[in-house]
Amino acid sequence: xxxxxxxxxxxxxxxxxxxxxxxxxxxxxxxxxxxxxxxxxxxxxxxxxxxxxxxxxxxxxxxxxxxxxxxxxxxxxxxxxxxxxxxxxxxxxxxxxxxxxxxxxxxxxxxxxxxxxxxxxxxxxxxxxxxxxxxxxxxxxxxxxxxxxxxxxxxxxxxxxxxxxxxxxxxxxxxxxxxxxxxxxxxxxxxxxxxxxxxxxxxxxxxxxxxxxxxxxxxxxxxxxxxxxxxxxxxxxxxxxxxxxxxxxxxxxxxxxxxxxxxxxxxxxxxxxxxxxxxxxxxxxxxxxxxxxxxxxxxxxxxxxxxxxxxxxxxxxxxxxxxxxxxxxxxxxxxxxxxxxxxxxxxxxxxxxxxxxxxxxxxxxxxxxxxxxxxxxxxxxxxxxxxxxxxxxxxxxxxxxxxxxxxxxxxxxxxxxxxxxxxxxxxxxxx
Length: 431
Ligand SMILES: NC(=O)C1=CN([C@@H]2O[C@H](COP(=O)(O)OP(=O)(O)OC[C@H]3O[C@@H](n4cnc5c(N)ncnc54)[C@H](OP(=O)(O)O)[C@@H]3O)[C@@H](O)[C@H]2O)C=CC1
Ligand SMILES: N[C@@H](CC=O)C(=O)O
What we know:
Its EC number is 1.1.1.3. By secondary structure, the protein is α/β, with parallel strands linked by helices. The protein contains 14 helices and 18 strands. Helix 4 packs parallel to helix 5. The site of NADPH dihydro-nicotinamide-adenine-dinucleotide phosphate (NDP) has 27 residues, from helix 1.
């Protein structure tokens, strides 16, 4: 008989990430006792469809019976990898109330119900770990909560969605079209069950809500995040970005300026010399600025089977160690402040505008006039040669309050000389 205690674990979900976690735990089985001080065994794997073939997972551990897991007193850790809000929320709450520790990668759930879940974990003195919920395999949650806890953090920003970064990389570097790149991202297991969450920026918005809550110690939920996706980005935007020396990325930016938080996700142009411009494919990267550490950057694979499993299994080992030392629930909720959100319209940004205009004299003066009357000054402008009586005017503005830019865009919408406001894309600037 082994001298080590056996810790029994239930896995909820055996899809891309769940499958990876099962296989990775198997791969590490022999080392676990030395690493953790206990043997870790996944004894039950909850799925929806018992008939589906699962490579690498023995059929005898598969079940579709949640009650059999929650009422199994031998299971002390539940790993939730089903995704979505319900029934994941209910199962996690039930698991915590039943005295089980929980690991999850579910950002949809945390960005909406994080407070409720953290409170349940605290009440029951149990661990609730979610390293994989942001940045896939990149360690970022624990560094923010622990390693950087001595800082006042004023900015967290970066690329936090692997699917969209993969799509934009393929469009920029290889001229792929959007749909082909998305299909390939789905095939590689990066995309969410409903990829709208990726391409419309919702997934990145949820991750930024989680990061901002931890970094600024104040609860930010998904509804607080100003979100735009990449579905309207065209090959022309990418090409013109290059002409101005920029690269197009879906970026999340969270700032705390004098107690007012601003959290947003949108396609942004960043200087091609910026380190984030060279974070490609499914890689993610997060920048953190703290008063003591200055700048720190975390980079790695942001999605996919084993990168995500790496973060989940790291959490699993951490929980198992806490169990050995009887210190579960040690790292609880850190939202002890109640900061307010800055209204999106008050945020000051630089913008790239692509306008489809009539090919005649006076257009540039007309455009400059409307922008000027609304307090928007022009930093750079390029007029493209006309084709079939229409021309393109590409403008980079100086920093402006977003509401003033929106007012100018409304006026453009009513001007006959402007056929279309084809693109309005934020240009990243440092604080
Ligand atoms: N894919 C990635 O790269 C990353 C994903 N995540 C997060 O990890 C989680 C899992 O993602 P992923 O593995 O891609 O998702 P998948 O869709 O690949 O897998 C989901 C799994 O959960 C099971 N499941 C879903 N609903 C239920 C239910 N009601 N009861 C029982 N089982 C259920 C499914 O069962 P069945 O197989 O029978 O259909 C499937 O095995 C999500 O929260 C996701 O956001 C986080 C980081 C990266
Ligand atoms: N769909 C997500 C998966 C990881 O969180 C992504 O593409 O980043």
